[in-house]
């Protein structure tokens, strides 16, 4: 997944590529996740930066 622009705080980040979307809860057009089934969800993210 790659995001090639700077973002302000509290903005929705839409990813260019979605590898896994079991249950289709993530909407790639809006960048929002809506739980398809009620329950407890866990999200994990790893962010790396680099400079040319």
Which descriptors would you attach to this protein?
52 residues; little secondary structure; signal
What does this structure look like?
This protein has 52 residues and is low in regular secondary structure. It is built from no helices and two strands. It has one domain. The chain has strands at 26-27, 32-33. Strands 1-2 form a two-stranded antiparallel ribbon. The protein is elongated, with a radius of gyration of 13 Å. It holds the Pfam family C1q. This is C1q domain-containing protein. It is found in: Secreted.
Brief sketch in words of this structure:
This protein is largely without helices or strands and 52 residues long.
Uncertain runs are none
Largest sheet, strands/sense/barrel: 2 strands, antiparallel
Instruction: Please tally the β strands and state the result.
Output: 2
Shape descriptor reads elongated
Radius of gyration: 13 Å
Tell me what portion of residues adopts beta-strand conformation: 5-15%
- Which structural class matches the secondary elements? little secondary structure
> Which series of helices and strands comes N to C?
EE
List the domain count as a whole number: 1
The span between the termini is: 18 Å
Mean pLDDT: 81
Share in helix = under 10%
Largest sheet: spatial strand order:
1-2
* Count of DSSP H/I helices: 0
Task: Draw up the topology in text.
Layout: E1 26-27, E2 32-33
Antiparallel strand pairs: 1-2
